[in-house]
Amino acid sequence: MTWIAIRDRDDAIFAPSGVANRRDDGATATEDFDRPMPRGSVLLETRLSPYEGPQLLLGLKRGFDAAMSLMLRAVPGGGISLVHTRGGEMCHAALTHDAEARRTDVLRITYSWDMAHGWARLAVERPDVTHCFQAVVRTPVPLTLADVRDMICDPVATVVDDDVLFLAVSDRIEPIGPMPGLMASLPVETAQGTRALGDLRRGDLVETLDGRLVPVLDVLRRTVPARGLFEPVRLRHPYFGLARDIVVTPGQCMLVGGSRVEYLFGREHVLVPAGHLAGGAAGLRERGHELVTYTQLLLPEADAICAAGAYLESLDIGRLRRKGDLHAASLLAGLGRNRLPEHVARPYPVLGAFEASTLATQRSAA
Q1: 3-class DSSP state for residue 179?
Q2: How many Cα neighbours within 13 Å face the side chain of 292?
Q3: Cβ-based neighbours of 323, under 8 Å, separated by 6 or more
Q4: What are the tens digits of pLDDT across the range 61-104?
Q5: Is 162 exposed, middle or buried (CB count within 10 Å of its CB: 0-12, 13-18, 19+)?
Q6: Average pLDDT score, the chain
Q7: How far, in Å, CA of 60 to CA of 84, rounded?
Q8: In the Cβ-directed half-sphere of 8, how many Cα atoms lie within 13 Å?
Q9: Which of 65, 197, 215, 227 sits 20 to 30 Å CA-CA off 313?
Q10: Please, are residues 185 and 194 in contact by the beta-carbon 8 Å criterion?
Q11: Do 25 and 13 form a contact (C-beta atoms < 8 A)?
């Protein structure tokens, strides 16, 4: 299984059998709800409070029998603190993330535990700039299904800050770091012609912006809650040269060039995040999904691949190979560090929301 609960401002889903296999979970034996989960993860996305002072992002307290509490706070100066207790057990983790994060930036926070191996991990990411920080402690405290149920469904037991976009719970150790952002059905130009992204394998050759054919080093997949920075964005044909509609994550970048780009930005090409196009004629957010599976290619360089008539950025992992702890916690953990490429800084500027909207308007008027 994987994701067993999702909560946002509009919905609360608790499915012990798995969100993807929702059924009448009341059939689950009552005693199972109080059994400690051997491993799992709590993931949430949030913005930071504009006020100077501690911000309780998530708070859960259960009755005297459970004697359990979980408190996740953001503290001034770029700190995140977690205290998780049950009876006489306590897990306390704290770390300092990017103190320059702005009020409008979204942080992704993941708390994971693994009882069999005796550790818990608090991780904070800024997906917009691929910054990732983590703290590992050797005093794990597990959640139970009853804890998760109350976290999702009981407004008396749980406090969730208004700045939290969503939270979700998995019964697995969820990876952190670079994430896929494309759909498996995306048509990609390869040495064998047009093929679906999900059909590609290591060693296949794909076409890049300058017409080169480069080898695929790995194909990554991940199923995530369709919320926050994972919520699908539909980019619409024929904007930006698309031959058909495509569905991507908000953070997935499209490489765009042409005379208007040169005139507006003085660069031959720019990167446009899909999320900046949502809400206009060129793109819209796809509502109503609970989970979504994304796929992405790892190439020797973070080249843009030719897909559906446009150029979409492949996975950018930066210098992940130099960071053993983050590599081990990522989707790329199964690929040895000595087999990973090192991606240098993007050669193209990434447009902000206003710039992307301006470009979309200019191109639609052409």
Answers
A1: coil
A2: 26
A3: none
A4: 987 555 899 999 998 888 999 999 998 899 999 998 875 656 66
A5: exposed
A6: 90
A7: 9
A8: 16
A9: 227
A10: no
A11: no
Cα 195 to Cα 178, 188, 207, 232, 303: the distances in Å are 24, 5, 11, 22, 18
Alpha-carbon distance 365 to 318, whole Å? 36
- Give residue 62's pLDDT: 85
CB-side exposure of 214: number of CA atoms within 13 Å?
A: 19
Give residue 359's identity as a one-letter amino acid code: L
Segment (H or E) for 42: strand 39-46
d(CA 42, CA 106) in angstroms, rounded, equals 16
Amino acid at 192: Q
pLDDT in tens, 263-274: 899 999 999 999
Bridge partners, 119 (sequence order): 114
Mean pLDDT of 313-340: 92
Q: Which residue has the higher pLDDT, 75 or 22?
A: 75
Enter the tokens of residue 226: 């369709």
φ, ψ (nearest 5 deg) of residue 273: -65, 135
Closest CA to 164 of 7, 42, 52: 7
Residue type, 298: L
**Closest Cα partner for 44 from 10, 5, 102, 79?**
5
Contact present, 340 and 334 (Cβ < 8 Å): no
Q: Classify the C-alpha dihedral 315-271-253-48 as positive or negative.
A: positive
pTM higher than 0.85 = yes
Task: Look up residue 95 and give its DSSP letter.
Answer: E
Which of 233, 364, 258, 366 minimizes the C-alpha distance to 311? 258
Q: Give the whole-angstrom CA distance, residue 27 versus residue 1.
A: 17
pLDDT tens per residue across span 199-245: 999 999 999 998 899 999 999 999 999 999 999 999 999 989 999 99
As a whole number of angstroms, the distance between CA 235 and CA 247 comes to 6
